[in-house]
Amino acid sequence: MTTYEEDEHLISQILAGDQKVLSTLYFKMKEIFISYMMREYKLERFGALQCYGEAFTTFYLNIRNGKLMPPLRSSLKTYLFSIGKFSYLSARRQSQKVLPLNPSLSESLITGPEKIVTKENAQWVRQLLNKLGDPCKAILTAFFIKGFSAESVALNFGLSNESAARKRKFDCLKKIRKLMSE
Fold this sequence. Notes:
Elements: H1 5-15, H2 19-41, H3 45-64, H4 76-96, H5 107-111, H6 119-132, H7 134-145, H8 150-156, H9 162-181
Helix pairs in contact: 2-3, 3-4, 6-9, 7-9, 8-9
């Protein structure tokens, strides 16, 4: 066996469908991860928590899809933190690569993950998202800005499946269309 026998055992339990092990691991790593992201990347708690949700989802999917298998070359904690770090840095890089979004072309906001160039456009989008409220704001941000799949959104937001995530996205987009027409 390797140096990471305990972590390898946890992977086998997760693969066997042991939700208690997965839940315990989630809560065990949560505060440590959030503190790390707040300290290293100067994130606010909410941002670090969102990053953790995304990282843990990817971590779980990598185990389930066989991308993380024994023998391990690092601890599960190191692996999870690496996912979070690279996910955060990738999102930061993506937010710096911008495409124009014109308010008169507001349909582009509804149909695809466009990026913001001007401060006015960014402010306009922020105002729309703030008017929507937290659930819709978080879901649309996950889909369009962070590029989450429907499966990841469902896992992060505790929805029953991908269809429920797509339905929630549709409902939120409907609300944003209504706000834009006001």
